[in-house]
Amino acid sequence: MNKKLNRLICFALIVILSIPVVSIVFAGKPDRGPLEKIVFIHYKKGYGKPEETPGKPQKADKEYYTLLVKGAKWKETPVNYVIDPDNTYGLSVEFIIGAISASAEEWDDHTGTELFGSYTKGSSSWDVWEDVYSNRINEIFFGDYPRDGVIAVAIVWGYFGGPPSGREIIEFDIMFDIDYTWGDATSYPKVMDLQNIATHEIGHGAGLGDLYKTETSDETMYGYSTEGEIKKRDLNPGDIAGIRFLYDE
């Protein structure tokens, strides 16, 4: 190797070593990895748990709750949301908004954090199921999921990688499947009770997972439902323990 080439190599090494090391930080927070989504599919009782539903056979503790992902919760509260009341059942706007907002308030009533804030009436940005994407708007609406037996679907978006302390929920979207007739099961026992199912789905939006063990069947976050059921409207001990674990500690 000639002397000229040696000098060039030495000069290049000096330049490289003199460049300062820079840590890239986005919005003042360490990189938490890519934005991810977790899909919860709520089946009618009697259907099998689908593969894409998060959570292998649940190892519920004595209080019967599971977490979406360890550490994942809303860092900025209260959480506002949009209700699209458009439906094919003749349900009034007042009924739909009343049932869904009551479901959100049920979670608020059991935690010291003002978790859910105001709602607005609007139109969903989802035209078809395949158009699912994150737009940082929490949307609740009626739609058609292309599979039999599906009552509702909740998609929770966030940063779920890295250390648990850095994990964060940034959006949820909930769809009630129009394959069922929706309404108030206290008055019409043959319908799928909107408040009952909404309370369960909003639990996913807050950061809780599904339960499937038989002994958890009275919990709001139990993963199956059916027409006429209203017991999920009110939180049970495991649901309360879970939401307080996330937001009261």
What would you note in describing this structure?
The protein is α/β, with parallel strands linked by helices and 249 residues long. The protein has one domain: Collagenase (Catalytic Domain). 22% of the residues lie in helices and 20% in strands. It is built from 4 helices and 9 strands. The radius of gyration is 23 Å and the shape is globular. The protein starts with a helix and ends with a helix.
Topology, element by element:
Layout (H helix, E strand, L loop, with lengths): L2 H15 L18 E9 L34 E5 L9 H16 L7 E6 L17 E5 L6 E10 L8 E10 L4 E2 L8 E2 H13 L17 E2 L11 H11 L2
Parallel strand pairs: 1-9, 2-3, 2-4, 4-6, 7-8
Antiparallel strand pairs: 1-5, 5-6
Summed up, what is this model?
This protein is of the alpha/beta class and 249 residues long. 22% of the residues lie in helices and 20% in strands. The chain has one domain: Collagenase (Catalytic Domain) (3-Layer(aba) Sandwich), CATH 3.40.390.
